């Protein structure tokens, strides 16, 4: 009987320590579980991106999507048809060239202009036209 009384006395005198230990253990368990849930969400989000990137598109769709994104990014509302006509038909008349994925324009002799993929090229006949479309001069133009 004295063992039980001494055990109860021990518990009563150290109950704050026991409570502290229990709280620490509970916080550790909750944190661990939250980490597991977050990792599962992260993996499932990565899977969704991979699946969306596997959609096959023809070159015309890719060109339209790239041009649409460039116009959206620059906040332009002009008609896309005029620019696609310049891209497709009048490349020999281009004095300056830019990329749909950039905000810089280059002179045709610039080494960076030569590296722009044909499907991403936007041609300009003047500096004013390029700047009107939101492009800025590249370092090779200075």
Description:
With 142 residues, the protein is of the alpha+beta class. It folds into 2 domains: 52 residues; 64 residues, 3-Layer(aba) Sandwich (DNA Methylphosphotriester Repair Domain), CATH 3.40.10. A 4-stranded mixed sheet has the order 3-1-2-4. The longest helix has 39 residues. The radius of gyration is 32 Å and the shape is rod-shaped. It starts with a helix and ends in a 5-residue tail after the last strand. About 13% of the residues have low confidence.
Spans where pLDDT lies below 50 across 5 or more residues: 47-53, 77-81, 84-89
Give the CA-based shape.
rod-shaped
Task: Decide which structural class fits the backbone.
Answer: alpha+beta
Q: How would you state the average pLDDT, rounded? A: 76
For this structure, what is the CATH class of the largest domain?
Alpha Beta
| Helix residue percentage | 55-70%
Domains, number = 2
What is the structure about, briefly put?
The protein has helices spanning 2-13, 15-53, 59-74, 80-89, 111-114, 127-132; strands at 96-99, 104-107, 121-124, 136-137. The chain is of the alpha+beta class and 142 residues long.
């Amino acid at each position: 009987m004295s063992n039980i009384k001494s055990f109860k006395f021990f518990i009563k005198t150290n109950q704050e320590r026991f409570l502290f230990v229990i709280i620490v253990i509970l916080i550790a368990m909750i944190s661990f579980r939250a980490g597991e849930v977050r990792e599962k969400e992260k993996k499932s989000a990565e899977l969704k991106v991979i699946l969306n990137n596997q959609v096959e598109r023809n070159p015309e769709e890719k060109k339209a999507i790239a041009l649409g994104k460039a116009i959206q990014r620059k906040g332009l509302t002009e008609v896309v048809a005029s620019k696609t006509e310049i891209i497709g038909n009048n490349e020999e008349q281009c004095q300056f060239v830019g990329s749909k994925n950039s905000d810089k324009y280059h002179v045709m002799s610039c080494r960076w202009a030569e590296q722009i993929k044909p499907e991403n090229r936007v041609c300009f006949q003047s500096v004013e036209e390029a700047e009107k479309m939101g492009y800025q001069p590249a370092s090779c133009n200075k």
